[in-house]
Design a protein that fits this description.
The complex is a heterodimer of chains A (about 150) and B (about 325).
Chain A (H helix, E strand, L loop, with lengths): L8 H20 L22 H33 E3 L1 H24 L7 H28 L4 E3 L1
Antiparallel strand pairs in A: 1-2
Chain B lengths: L5 H12 L21 E6 L8 H9 L41 E9 L2 E9 L8 H4 L6 E3 L5 E3 L9 H5 L6 E3 L17 E3 L5 H5 L5 H5 L5 E5 H15 L2 E3 L9 E5 L3 H7 L17 H36 L6
Parallel strand pairs in B: 1-10
Antiparallel strand pairs in B: 1-8, 2-3, 4-5, 6-7, 9-10
Classes of the chains: A mainly alpha (about 150), B alpha+beta (about 325).
The complex binds iron/sulfur cluster (3 copies).
Chain lengths: ~150, ~325
Amino acid sequence: MEQNFFPEHKYITRAYIFIIFMMTLTGFGQMPIFKRYYIADIPGLGWLAEFYLTHYIHYIGAILLFAIFAYCTAGYFLVGRHTFRLTGPAYVRIILLSAITLTGIFRVLKNLPDMVFSPNFTMFIDISHMVFVMIFLLAAAVFLFMKTGWLMPK
Amino acid sequence: MQKLSRRSFLKAGLAAAGTLGTSGLALPASVRGADTNELATLIDIRKCVGCEACVDACQEVNAHKFPEPEKPFPKMYPSRVKVADWSEKRDVRDRLTPYTWVFIQNATVTVNGEEQELSFPRRCMHCQNPPCADLCPWGAARKLENGITRIHSDICLGGQKCKAVCPWKIPERQTGVGLYLDILPSLAGNGVMFKCDRCYNRIEKGELPACIGACPEDVQTIGPREEIIKQARMIAKEIGGYIYGETENGGTNTIYVSPVPFETLNKAIEKGPGRPHFDGVEDAMAHADNLAKAMIIAPLAGVAAGVGRFYKAAKNLDASRGKEGKR
Ligand code: SF4
Ligand code: SF4
Ligand code: SF4
C-alpha cells in the first residue's frame, strides 16, 4: 500500500496487530481456561491466569486501541479519503470492531460501581462481545491470508 | 427488578432495633448513586450468642436452591480438574459450603482486660462493587439494584473465577449440577458456585432474610445503607467499637460492629478454605475504575493527535486541488 500521506502506518499497523493479539489473549484469559489447560504453567505465561492483571491489560489495550482508531479516523477524513477509499474488507472490519467496541463499552460501564444492568442484558453483552471477537478474528485471518488491506487508491 | 417497600423493612428492621424512630428514617440525599436503593445489613457482634439459629434458618428456607448433583459425575479433563462434592457432607457447618451459606465464626479475645468468647455469622459481604460479578465472564454473577450480589445457578458454569477474585473467597463450588452438563461437561465448567444470595426472593416479597428473622438476639438489622452506616457508627461510638465493611473492598453491604479491633478478631479466628478473614481489603476494582476514566480521554487524545498531525497536510491538499474534485 502506498499510503504516502501516512508513513507512520507501518508502526501503527504493527502496534494494532500486537494490541489485538494481546486483547484476544487477555480477553480469553477472562475465562478460567488458561490454568485448567496448563497454558499458565508454561514458564513466562503464568500471568495469563491472573484475572486482575489480564483485566487491567485488557483495559489498557482498549485505551490504546481507542486512541489509534481515533488517530486513524482523523487521518482518513482529513487527508486519506481524497486519494484512497476503504476496501470492502475494511468495512467488514470497521463494523465488527465497532460492535466489539460498543459491547466492550457496556462491559466497562457494567463494572463501574454505580451501574446495574438486567441479567439478560448482562449476559447478552458478555456473550455478544465474545461472539463478535470470534467473527472478527476469523474475518481478520481470512483478510490477512488474502492480503486485503484497509485502503485502496481511488 | 421489583423494588421492595422500604417502609416494611424499616419497620421490621431499623425501627425494631429501637435506635431510630420511624420519623427519622427519610433517606438522606445519597452521596453515590447506587447507595440510594442499596440495602445493607448490620451485624452487631456483641449480641451474637452463637446459637446457630441463623444457620438453620438459612438452610431451611434455601434448601430448594441447594444443588442436587447427578452422579456419577462426568469425567473431567485434564485430570488436574478436581471434583468439588459437598452433597454427602451437607451437615458441615463450621465453614462455607454450597449447602452452608452462613456459618458461625468464633474468637476468644480480651475485652477491657476480660477474656471473652465472641461469635458472629460469616457469609458473603455483598460488596458495593463486587469483583465476583464484575469479572464473571458469563454474566452469571450479578449485582442487583438493592445491593445483593447473586450468582444465577442456572447460568453459572462453575469455573470458580468469582471465588478467585473475591477478596474473601466466598463462593463454593458443587460439581455435577448446572449448565456445564449440557455443554461440554468434560472439557469446560465444573458445576455451579453457591453463596448467600441474601434471600433475594424473600426481599422481593418484602420479607426479611431468614437468618435475620430467625435470630433470637436481633444480631442483624437490614435497611438502606446510609441508615445502617449511621447506626453502625452510633454503636461504635457508644461502645468505643470498630466497624468492618464500610470501606473494605471499596464498601460492602454487610457492616460488622465489634467491641474489639478487627485485627484482633482476625488473629483469633480460624481462617482457611471456607473460613473468611477479617483483614483490611483494598478496593479490588479501583484500578479498573480509574482506567475506565482514561478510556473516555483516549479517543479525544487520538483525534487531537490526528488533527494536529494531518491538519496541515489537509490544508495543503485542499490548496493544491483548488476548486475541482473535492471529495
Ligand atoms: S441466630 Fe443470631 S445469635 Fe444465633 S448465631 Fe446467628 S447471629 Fe448469632
Ligand atoms: S464478598 Fe465476594 S462473593 Fe460476596 S459480593 Fe463480594 S466479591 Fe462477591
Ligand atoms: S441472607 Fe438468606 S441466604 Fe444469606 S445467609 Fe441469611 S438466610 Fe442465608
